Inverse folding.
């Protein structure tokens, strides 16, 4: 039996995630995986090397950012 | 962690710039936090009509350091990343644009580093949307915090020589005074204060913001600035790549002139030709 999905917000938008789904998996699924995808989880930056380890929990709030044009 | 993005590759390129040689023909590279940079022109990536035009201008500028901002990805319209357009041998210098407080700036810097961007940060704390002038107190607070956390901090500041000393004291790697308000193209309106900063500098002075023409960049370099950062004047030119090249030449010319030793200004004329020519009365 499939465990119940968890709900997280990504840049303010609600997204369903599988229990135990990692940051890396979520980025892949949303098409956000990139060389410089920057992730903040519940106000704390996530180290790139841990994207594949950090499992999402219900109610997590993520900010996904990246380099954009600027001076 | 240090700089990423191919600094090593960049330093292995053939030396294209005769003017990058200094007074004695020695290497005149710019050292910031122990890193050698051959180009004294830093460019921004903002305000270009397209990322392709941006890429061509960055290449034409010959710069090694390129600033980027950090922004949320719009989930509805995930566009190509600007970094996909940058040459592999440029080094990204993330800025903290959009920060009105030191807390905002520290947050962006931490996010950038955690996600794999360099631990160099162009620190901007700008509470004022009209003049886009940086908050000196907030900048100093954020600089101290970020230096403590191991960042190489390059703060964007109003040209205040007292603030400069405080930023040096907390360990900033360079100080980046504005020549005039961001994007104004007004040139060295704050020239005298920048001269004082250059005279007393213990870390590189990078003149940032407000330079509208290559002549103004050359002027900053003649004054003794270690480098300049240019964005709008290149990005908004009719031909950004050609303007980028013009700024490159101007920065080299200004640097070379600084080394060559400029003459003192005089109020009166001083003849360049002999005054006792054929028409001289005997």
């Amino acid at each position: 039996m499939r465990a119940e999905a968890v709900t997280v917000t990504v840049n303010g938008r609600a997204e369903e995630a599988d229990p135990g789904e990692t940051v890396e998996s979520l980025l892949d699924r949303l098409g956000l995986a990139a060389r410089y995808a920057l992730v903040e989880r519940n106000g704390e930056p996530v180290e790139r090397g841990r994207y594949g380890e950090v499992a999402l929990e219900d109610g997590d709030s993520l900010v996904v950012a990246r380099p954009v044009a600027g001076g | 962690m240090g700089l990423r993005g191919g600094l090593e590759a960049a330093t292995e390129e053939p030396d294209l710039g005769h003017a990058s040689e200094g007074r004695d023909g020695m290497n005149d590279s710019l050292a910031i936090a122990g890193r050698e940079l051959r180009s004294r022109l830093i460019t921004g990536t903002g305000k270009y009509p397209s990322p392709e035009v941006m890429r061509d201008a960055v290449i034409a500028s010959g710069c090694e350091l390129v600033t980027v901002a950090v922004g949320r990805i719009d989930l509805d319209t995930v566009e190509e990343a600007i970094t996909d357009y940058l040459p592999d041998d440029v080094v990204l210098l993330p800025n903290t644009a959009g920060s009105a407080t030191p807390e905002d700036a520290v947050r962006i810097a931490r996010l950038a580093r955690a996600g794999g961007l360099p631990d160099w940060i162009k620190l901007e704390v700008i509470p004022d949307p009209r003049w886009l002038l940086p908050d000196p107190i907030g900048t100093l607070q954020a600089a101290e915090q970020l230096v403590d956390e191991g960042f190489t901090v390059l703060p964007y500041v109003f040209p205040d020589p007292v603030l400069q000393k405080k930023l040096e004291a907390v360990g900033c790697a360079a100080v980046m005074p504005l020549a005039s308000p961001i994007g104004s193209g007004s040139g060295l309106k704050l020239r005298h204060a920048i001269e004082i900063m250059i005279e007393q500098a213990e870390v590189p002075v990078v003149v940032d913001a407000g330079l509208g023409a290559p002549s103004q960049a050359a002027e900053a370099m003649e004054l003794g600035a270690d480098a300049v950062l240019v964005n709008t004047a290149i990005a908004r030119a009719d031909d950004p790549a050609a303007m980028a090249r013009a700024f490159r030449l101007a920065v080299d010319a200004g640097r070379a002139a600084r080394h060559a030793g400029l003459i003192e200004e005089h109020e009166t004329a001083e003849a360049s030709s002999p005054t006792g020519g054929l028409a001289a009365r005997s």
About this structure: Residues 4-26 of chain B have pLDDT under 50 and may be disordered.
